[in-house]
From TrEMBL:
Gene3D superfamilies: Ribonuclease H-like superfamily/Ribonuclease H. PANTHER family: CXC1-LIKE CYSTEINE CLUSTER ASSOCIATED WITH KDZ TRANSPOSASES DOMAIN-CONTAINING PROTEIN (PTHR35871:SF1), EXPRESSED PROTEIN (PTHR35871). This is Tc1-like transposase DDE domain-containing protein. GO terms for molecular function: nucleic acid binding. InterPro entries: RNaseH_sf.
Amino acid sequence: DTDAFLKDIGSYTRETSHNWSWKFLNGNFDEFINDKRGGKQGDSFYDIYPELEEEARAFAVIQCNKKAASFTAYELAQFIDNRYYEINDIQKNDLKLVRSVECCRLDLRRWGAHFDINSNRPYFEGHERSDVREHREQFVRQFLTNQDSYYTVNSDEDPSWNKQKSSRPTILICKRVILSYIFSNMFSWYNSIGHDESTFRSGDVCRKRWFLGDSTPFFSKGRGRSVMVSDFLVQHPSGPFLQLDEQEWTKAIRKYPELLIDDGIRYVKYSATVFAHLGVDSYFDNSVILLQFERLFKLIEFKQEYQTQSIEILVDNATTHTAKSYSINDFGKNIGTNCPVSSIEYLNDNNEIETLDCYFQSGPHIGQSKGLLVIARELGIQVPSGVKLNELKVILSNHKAFQNNSKLENLAKRYNIEIKFIPKFHCELNPIEGMWCHQKQFVRKHSDQTFQRMLELIHESRENFTQKMIFLKLFRRFWRTIYAYARGQSYEEVLKLYFGDDCSSTVISHRKVTNSNLSKV
């Protein structure tokens, strides 16, 4: 078996190798050189077919980059075999491969491939999908068009805010929903606010630590109790978190006394930050998030530093943010079928509000739902006879009556605040992601795996985040990411440039962000 394998890969057999090894050690060296070590001299396969090697290598690269893990050295051997007979225009008469599977396996290693565990690979699921890319381009254009209105950070080693150029700056607030610990970001000139949620677990600890000798503290194996936090991060020189002082709070409750009502949600004093002890408090569903946002909108009105400034809130596409009052999929086709709302309000072509009743107000069907067929006629839409429900939904989905906003957007409009949705799958465009990463790192590093200590560390991590001015670096990275997409770079290129191991400054998303890391990017 060994001799057969060695012959297949064009090597010496055992006896030949032993013979010439003995001559090399004990025989005449000149004889050894003149005989060329007894080897069979000649061109290798790829010396004769160099273009076939290039094709084989290109084939291997394509197969290795596919999502499926089905590629094998045998497939490469088959590819080479097929191309060999095509190049020479001859008919294959046996099953023997012109280049063995073993040789192809060696070829792959020589070309830099390696057979390894199929995990911990980068993923780009839908990031360059046409609709996502279109939304990303629109998102980038919106920020670049109004970039002078936002508060931005300079590129100095010790970052600081740039001088504001707009007479009515905008504050940006960022938000994202993650299990357990929720954060929101606010940044401005356009007063921008970001929001996010995430989970802290008392059992989580840092991955590595120093040990000395055999004396080590006990370790709790479980994940412990969890706490969810929903917070806001503000892009504004007054500070990264929104919290009123006592005087501002007094004015707020004078106008909105409902702020004092206990609705079962754990708010941080004078702020819209929410804590939830999982298993005890309600989970952060759409109703809780809407209550939190409404509280935020009311508090913003009395924040002295935000006066005369526009407010924008940056959120992700979590269902807690995108939930709508109704969807066309909830409607039935005929009279008396499903109908989620009593009426629909929408803006017509003249930008005027129109109201359409979804239930009959008089006549033989009074009190019954109209169904999409009747609604289409009242909207003046021509519907072919015998139309199916799915076809009818497609026709009506293009009408303004069914292009409705989310509950969050409708709520924000009441307070003259704009909601901006981040493109799907693009967490790098939400600065708050870096905030909760920093806070979790801090909590895990100092955790003793007790619940009470974890609660203390969450508050300490916020203070540490502010003291080290990490928010300035996150906002600066956010704008540099915007500029990178504006230059036409793809999602993968942006990650490598600002977040990946290939970046010279080693800035990685979920790792520590330092000044020196970002200054070279």
